[in-house]
Amino acid sequence: MDYLTIKALHIIFVVTWFSGLFYIVRLFIYHTEASQKTDEQ
Predict the structure, then answer these.
(1) What is the spatial distance between Cα 29 and Cα 41, in angstroms, rounded to a whole number?
(2) First to last CA, the chain
(3) pLDDT tens by residue, 1-41
(4) Measured distance CA(33)–CA(39) in Å, rounded
(5) Measuring CA to CA, how many Å separate 7 from each of 10, 19, 25?
(6) Per-residue DSSP letters for 11-22?
């Protein structure tokens, strides 16, 4: 494979990885809020 292709795939992977890390925190917050609403009702 060409060096630029590997470099581009690496950048895409890193951006995807960090966006997933930030999004999973938001999913945990949604899960906690949903379970608290269920307990209150």
Answers:
(1) 19
(2) 58
(3) 899 999 999 999 999 999 999 999 999 999 999 988 876 66
(4) 10
(5) 5, 18, 28
(6) HHHHHHHHHHHH
Quote the CA–CA distance of 12 and 23 in Å, as a whole number: 16
Residue with tokens 């990885």: 17
| Structure-token pair, residue 31 | 């899960």
With H, G, I as helix, E, B as strand and everything else as coil, classify residue 2: coil
Query: Cα-atom radius of gyration of the chain, to the nearest Å?
Result: 18
Could you tell me the maximum CA-CA distance found in the chain, to the nearest angstrom?
Answer: 58
This model's pTM is above 0.85:
no
